[in-house]
C-alpha cells in the first residue's frame, strides 16, 4: 500500500466558538442510551434510557448550545412515554393514514413500530424525536427517521426515503441461515476472526424494503486492518443488498518529519493508593475524574493480534509516582500517553463548552483509551503501529505507537477529536459506513477533529484544514479539506473533490469524505487558497463548477449549521443531496431563531453547488442562483 493510500478515517460533530451569534439557546435532551451504538432500525425495547437536564450554553464564549447534558438512568419505557414521543407518533400515523383506503395499506401501517431513540425539546418549544423503526417485529435498516414538531403539529420528517412497507419481497426467508452466511461471505474481502452471526431484518432499498439477512463478520481486510462488517443479502435469493461497518479506523500515510509538541501542559489525573494501582504502590493514574473517569491505558508496546480476537485485549491504566509525566524525548511512553490524554480532554471540553454535551454519549461518562499498541497477525506478521481507530462495539479508542522512521505515535489532537466524534455520530445520526452515508460519517469526524484544533488554538500547532498533519514524520497530511484530491496516490486512488453523478456505492469512506470536507472548507473560508498552497493552487482550483467569489461564513458558524443538521436532520442512510437539504434547513432554523443572518442559507447552497451536490429531487430548498 502506498503512502497516500493509507489515510486517516473516523466520525461527527462541530464547534461553535467565537460565533457571531449572540442569543442563548437552551434545550432539553432525552435519549435512549442503550441504543446509542445500535445499527439504525435495531430493536430498542429493552435498552436503557437517559433523561437530560436543561442545557445552558456559555453565552460569553460561544453564545450557542444545542446538545445538552444527560444525567440519570430510567427505563426505556419512560422515554417512550415522553409527551413529545406520543405527539410525534400520533402525527406520523395521521400522515400515513391520510388518503389511505386499501385494507392492505392499513394492515402494513398497523405492523409498524416506532421506537424512540432520542428526544430534543428546544427553548422555543420545537420538538425533535428520532425513531428507529420495526416492521412485523423486525428492524428496518435505513428506516430511521426524525420528526420535527412545533406547537404540537408536525412540520417535517427527516428520513432517507419514503418506505412502502408490506409491499414486495419475501414474506418469510426462503434462504437458510447457512446459505445466507455463505452468500454474504462472498462479499467479505478479508480473513475471518470470529464465527459470523446473523439475524433477519428488513433492508430499505429503493423505497421498497426487502426481507434480508444481516450477516456480521469480524476479521481483517486486505490491508490487514480490523473490520467489523454487516453484509445484507436478500432473504429470497441471496443477492447482495448493502453493507455497513462498525470499525472506524485512522490509518496514516508513510513519510518523515516532525514531532507532535505543545510543550508542558496541564492534565487531570487521579491520585490512588497501592490497592488501586495493580500493585505499583501509591501514585497517580491517567484517569480524568473531572471528565467522567475516562482512563488512559498503557499497553506498553504490547502486540495486539488482529486475527485472534485482538479486540478483547486489556491493559492497566498508565501510572506515575510523582504526577510528573514523561520528558522531552518523543520515544518516552509517558509522553505518548499524555498527548493522547490531552487530546481526549480537549475534545471533551470542546463538546461540553460549545454544545453542553457531557461525554460522547451525553451520559457524563468518559471512555477508555489504549495507547502504545502495535498490531500483528498470527503473532508473527508485523502490521505496524501507524493506526488508530474508534471501536464502536466496545466504545473505546485505540492508538497505535507509530512506526520507526515513518510516523509518530498516532495520538495527534485532531486524531483524538476525529475518533471521539465517531462516537458522537454513533449516538446521534448513526450514519452508516458505506455509500454517501459513509463519506458523510468520515467527513463529520474530520470536521470535528479540525474544529477541536480551532478550539485549542495553540500557537505551537495553529489550527488548519489539514487532517493528521502531525502523524507522519515528514509532516505530510493525511487529508486536505480545501483540495481533497491532493492526497491522490500513484495508482490514482484518493479523495474526491466533487460529487459524481449517481453518488457513491462501494468506494472507501475515507475518500468519499472529500466531498463533505470540501464543502465545509468552502462554507467556512470561501474560495480562499491557504497560504501553504498559494504557489500551486488558484481560487478556481478550489471549486468544481467554475463558481467565483465564494465568501466564507467562518468555521464556527459553519460548525453550528453542520452540528444541527447532523444531530436533528440526518439519518443512518442519508445521501449527500439529503445532507445539503439538511444543512440548508438547519441554517434556516438558526436564521428564524435570530442567530444567523438570512444570507447564510444562500452561502450554504452555493458551497454545496461548488462541489456538485444538488438538492434531492422534488426539494423546494433554496438554489444558489435563485
TrEMBL record:
<keyword id="KW-0964">Secreted</keyword>
<dbReference type="Pfam" id="PF07504">
    <property type="entry name" value="FTP"/>
</dbReference>
<protein>
    <recommendedName>
        <fullName>Neutral metalloproteinase</fullName>
        <ecNumber>3.4.24.-</ecNumber>
    </recommendedName>
</protein>
<dbReference type="Pfam" id="PF02868">
    <property type="entry name" value="Peptidase_M4_C"/>
</dbReference>
<feature type="active site">
    <location>
        <position position="419"/>
    </location>
</feature>
<dbReference type="InterPro" id="IPR050728">
    <property type="entry name" value="Zinc_Metalloprotease_M4"/>
</dbReference>
<keyword id="KW-0862">Zinc</keyword>
<feature type="domain" description="Peptidase M4 C-terminal">
    <location>
        <begin position="429"/>
        <end position="613"/>
    </location>
</feature>
<keyword id="KW-0732">Signal</keyword>
<comment type="similarity">
    <text>Belongs to the peptidase M4 family.</text>
</comment>
<dbReference type="GO" id="GO:0004222">
    <property type="term" value="F:metalloendopeptidase activity"/>
</dbReference>
<feature type="domain" description="Peptidase M4">
    <location>
        <begin position="280"/>
        <end position="426"/>
    </location>
</feature>
<keyword id="KW-0482">Metalloprotease</keyword>
<feature type="signal peptide">
    <location>
        <begin position="1"/>
        <end position="23"/>
    </location>
</feature>
<dbReference type="InterPro" id="IPR011096">
    <property type="entry name" value="FTP_domain"/>
</dbReference>
<dbReference type="InterPro" id="IPR027268">
    <property type="entry name" value="Peptidase_M4/M1_CTD_sf"/>
</dbReference>
<dbReference type="GO" id="GO:0046872">
    <property type="term" value="F:metal ion binding"/>
</dbReference>
<comment type="function">
    <text>Extracellular zinc metalloprotease.</text>
</comment>
<keyword id="KW-0865">Zymogen</keyword>
<dbReference type="InterPro" id="IPR023612">
    <property type="entry name" value="Peptidase_M4"/>
</dbReference>
<dbReference type="InterPro" id="IPR013856">
    <property type="entry name" value="Peptidase_M4_domain"/>
</dbReference>
<feature type="active site" description="Proton donor">
    <location>
        <position position="510"/>
    </location>
</feature>
<keyword id="KW-0378">Hydrolase</keyword>
<dbReference type="InterPro" id="IPR001570">
    <property type="entry name" value="Peptidase_M4_C_domain"/>
</dbReference>
<keyword id="KW-0479">Metal-binding</keyword>
<dbReference type="Pfam" id="PF01447">
    <property type="entry name" value="Peptidase_M4"/>
</dbReference>
<dbReference type="GO" id="GO:0006508">
    <property type="term" value="P:proteolysis"/>
</dbReference>
<feature type="domain" description="FTP">
    <location>
        <begin position="113"/>
        <end position="159"/>
    </location>
</feature>
<dbReference type="GO" id="GO:0005576">
    <property type="term" value="C:extracellular region"/>
</dbReference>
<keyword id="KW-0645">Protease</keyword>
